[in-house]
Amino acid sequence: MKSSIKLKLFALAAILASALSLIFSLPASAIRLKELATFEGVRVNQITGYGLVVGLNGTGDKDQTGFTRQSLSNLLKRMDISVAPSALKVKNVAAVMVTADLPPFVKPGTKIDVLVSSLGDATSLQGGTLLITPLKALDDHIYAIAQGPLSVGGFALTGQAATVQKNHPTVGRIVQGGTVEREVPIRWQGKETLSVKLALPDFTTAARTAEAINESLPGAGARPLDAATVELNVPANYRENLAVMVAELENVLVEPDSVGKVIINERTGSVVVGENVKLSTVAVAHGNLSVQIRESENVNQPNPFSSGETVTTPQTDINVEEGADKLLLIERSTNINDVVKALNAIGVTPRDLITIFQLIQAAGALHGELEIL
Question: What is the pTM of this model?
Answer without folding.
Answer: 0.65
